[in-house]
């Protein structure tokens, strides 16, 4: 286990080195031309920040484009695109009304976005691959974060645009057809909340049965606890119940718990690999679980420390930062960011688990073929090996449930181009599968003869 821990730490070190090196290798433009403002004539302070037209840009919010200094206004204010407004480019737009909700998503008030300092208007049309659909004024609800709430779908500022006042004095909004790909957030949250009680029930069953509180059982309890907390935080985030500070805090906790769940799954795959490999008995169960806990809780803590460091220092460029809370209660919704800080570590862990399970399955097959388990075996040894094989099959099913979900999630995230993006029914299927994971885990871990007999023995 110590060797495996050192190997993971070496991988983490190289991950950090490559990430820092990439900062030097890439000439980063922090924002697009449309979302930048010429602040060349702004006033620069001693700390490197620039103030222009009442807006202060720190050194991570502007960049140099030749002789022109450009500030990324959308990193400071909530940007709103305005379509069909070429006549206002030179003179400016004085009126643009929309219904704006408060931090709780309620109390919609009609506000002039052009006169509100929280918002910045971009007089251009965002990119849209397919068709634009128009919303009537009464259905245009903009959140306090600058997103569009369209019947439960939350679209960020690059996925919709406002329209100037028409001849009837009405304001409308348009949204892009192909951008709506996920289930509505309330439905998505409800799916996770349905699964949550099954995870809690699984944890409680293992907690009240002393026979299940060996290293394997405690590892399963830790894994299920991580998933339960993750599901709760995801559901609350989808329901948009957080204010900004709570949103950021929950995002960091969610990241830690998601990573911890995969490291505990990694612990279980290593433990069964080690047990069936004949390493049993070299240390006490308690000491072994302490080592496992240090690894499974410590590794996510290292990753969390990294994203905290990158988010709150200028060690790396803004484009490569996690930007937790910038676009919802998780990592920034950008392919490179999520790959570096989430999918890449998960791919490494999943690959290690596949290796452990493959070697373990090969050992079991060789053991069966050479007659290692026969009728003449000592009954205690036979029972122990049978228990190990059952544990292996259980872990393998558990691993398959999680890997199927996350592997498809990773593939889906990488297929962002219009020609390669997965069809909408695939996205719905992935969402549905994610919501079922808690129920499936309950069936695998609790709905079996051994647990049933232990419960009957204890309470009947």
Automatic annotation (TrEMBL):
Keyword Membrane assigned: yes
MF terms in GO: G protein-coupled peptide receptor activity
Cellular compartments per GO CC: plasma membrane
A single BP term in Gene Ontology: cell surface receptor signaling pathway
InterPro entries reported in the protein's UniProt record: GPCR_2-like_7TM, GPCR_2_secretin-like, Methuselah_N_sf, Mth_GPCR
Annotated ranges, domain G-protein coupled receptors family 2 profile: 184-449
This protein's record includes keyword Cell membrane: yes
Compartment(s): Cell membrane
Record key words, sorted: Cell membrane, G-protein coupled receptor, Membrane, Receptor, Transducer, Transmembrane, Transmembrane helix
Membrane topology field: Multi-pass membrane protein
Family to which this protein belongs: Belongs to the G-protein coupled receptor 2 family. Mth subfamily.
Identification of the protein by name: G-protein coupled receptors family 2 profile 2 domain-containing protein
